[in-house]
Design a protein that fits this description.
The protein has 131 residues and is α+β, with helices and mostly antiparallel strands. It is 29% helix and 31% strand. The two termini are 19 Å apart.
Length: 131
């Protein structure tokens, strides 16, 4: 398994006159759907693919319900989901209200298990898969 990357030339946003530099940019080569995730889960458990699909569907419902109830959802040492928001600023404390919230964002904070797994990642240039 390797994580693919492209080579991208970018300007320095803080100094547009500085010479551009080349950076690695991660490349997703495929997106797998829920049915494929369920099939892969069923390959590694005693669940059949339909049961794994139902479990994923229930996880989504539980995650949304708890996030909308101001709760963080911790998945062991894998990580946690929580909400953040973007909003409109107010001149005074008294003017702050829920109506000033313009966008909710779901954040995922890595736990130790996932951090350790990612630390062992290997990388490969995406151009190596172009046929």
């Amino acid at each position: 398994m390797s994580i693919f990357y492209n080579k991208v030339e970018r300007a320095n946003p803080q100094n547009r006159t500085a010479p551009k530099k080349w950076y690695p940019s991660l490349k997703t080569i495929e997106q797998i759907g829920e049915k494929e995730v369920a099939r892969q889960i069923s390959d590694e458990t005693t669940l059949n693919p339909k049961e794994a699909e139902m479990a994923l569907d229930q996880f989504r419902k539980v995650l949304v319900r708890n996030l909308l109830d101001s709760k963080s959802v911790q998945l062991g040492d894998w990580g946690a989901f929580h909400l953040t928001c973007s909003g409109e600023g107010s001149a005074t404390r008294d003017e702050v209200s829920g109506a000033k919230i313009k966008k909710l964002n779901v954040q995922f904070t890595l736990g130790k298990e996932l951090q350790d797994a990612l630390a062992g990642a290997t990388f490969k240039a995406a151009e190596s898969i172009v046929g």
